[in-house]
Amino acid sequence: GSEKVLGREHPDTLASVNNLGLVLDSQGKYEEAEAMHRRVLEAREKVLGREHPDTLTSLNNLASVLDSQGKYEEAEAMHRRALEGREKVLGREHPSTLASVNNLASVLDSQGKYEEAEAMHRRALEGREKVLGREHPDTLTSLNNLGLVLGSQGKYEETVGIHRRVLEAREKVLGREHPDTLTSLNNLASVFSRQGKYEEAEAMHRRALEAREKVLGRENPQTLTSVNNPGLVLDSQRKHEEAEATHRRAQTVNSSTPMQQGILPRKMFSTPPPLLQLSQRHHRSLGERHDRDVD
Length: 295
What we know:
mainly alpha, Serine Threonine Protein Phosphatase 5, Tetratricopeptide repeat, 70% helix
């Protein structure tokens, strides 16, 4: 490998270690991913300096994996440092700077610091609309994340408008069955449920479930989230027998998948409470995600 030929601190070696860390992170192997990103960060600080763009990439990626483990205070401090460095080195409107704004907003949201998170998401959205365009996938991610933090504050009317805009744009740009489109469908359904619009919520959740089963498979983590959501809406409508059948199916599938071993990314799902399964929440599905940086 590159480490044997080039040495442990060669830039190409560090790029490979960084990307291995990203793969481990995507597999939910957070401790290994954290170790990889810490190694790369330490080496890049030594070889390239604390403000080199590649060093800031490592800082961002380490912060994101810490956030995925619920180590919010350390993650927040690292995202703030990455953001300050990128603003200084790359400028306030560089896509990598805006990624750091998004990521800091996300960790603030995870800690319930909703007002600051909202302000950061609005900044990321405004910057991405200007730099990337209104329908760019990263712009839509920022819009989705703003909708989530507004929902966390109970600002449901604005939230519905935002999630409708994201859903329409993703259907147009990505297609009706793209995983990010289905995330938006799920998020809009969840807001309807919180508003007591159960019939609309149930219909949307069923559409998301059917499409995820088709596109992702019955045992995919996002599909498993979708299995429970119609049941929760049915419970709210007092359709208990139908709800019980739905929950039984979800329980049967859950018990036979790796989800029970806790290896899934904490922020894979985007369903806001109270329709959130397995204590998952967020901004990452992906479309609802932290912005990781690949070398």
